[in-house]
Design goal:
Elements (H helix, E strand, L loop, with lengths): L12 H20 L3 E3 L2 E3 L10 H20 L2 H6 L1 E8 L6 E2 L1 H13 L4 E12 L2 E11 L5 E14 L2 E11 L1
Parallel strand pairs: 3-8
Antiparallel strand pairs: 1-2, 3-4, 5-6, 6-7, 7-8
């Protein structure tokens, strides 16, 4: 480390290509693994993201539409009910918000700060065990249609009381 005669240039193309090949060699076999059914039990060989059923994707899309409708009504109670009982929202601006009452308070504050509309654009949807991961982008708007923020999000949906609800909501501003 302290040798002044040692070359300290970046990795050459050959080293970078070898490193990339080594990573792919390790990752590709793992990506091919999926849960395997053995009678009445499922043995998970590796965590694998798979496509959820069309009915579940439609249910998540409908829940997102209900969320936007509740924002337009400024109905923080309805929004909080869209989360699981131990639902959590994580944003870069503060500590995680847990539980429906705390979530309701956060949305009330957002409405006081001008939030009047929202757009949600789902880009990818994956089944993760018995939950669904929704990756997308969103826009928060004022009553006049001015953009308050553009966001990227990862929302983990969980079925509770027979309904898909937001279990974990991770959002970052763009």
């Amino acid at each position: 480390m302290l040798d002044p005669h040692r070359q300290r240039g970046g990795a050459g193309r050959a080293v970078a290509a070898a490193a990339a090949l080594a990573c792919l060699s390790a990752a590709l076999p793992l990506a091919a693994l999926a849960p395997r059914a053995d009678g009445d039990t499922i043995q998970t060989l590796a965590v694998a993201a798979i496509n959820p059923g069309a009915a579940d994707v439609q249910a998540i899309a409908a829940a997102n539409a209900d969320f936007v409708a509740a924002v337009r009504r400024r109905d923080s109670k309805a929004i909080a009910e869209m989360y699981t009982t131990d639902g959590m929202m994580v944003t870069p601006s503060g500590p995680p918000t847990r539980g429906r009452q705390a979530l309701r308070d956060v949305y009330d504050e957002a409405f006081e700060n001008g939030m009047a509309d929202a757009e949600i654009r789902t880009q990818e949807v994956y089944a993760v065990g018995d939950m669904i991961l929704d990756i997308g982008r969103g826009t928060v708007l004022t009553e006049k249609g001015e953009v308050l923020s553009n966001t990227r999000s990862m929302t983990l949906w969980k079925k509770e009381e027979g309904k898909w609800r937001i279990h974990r909501d991770y959002t970052v501003r763009q």
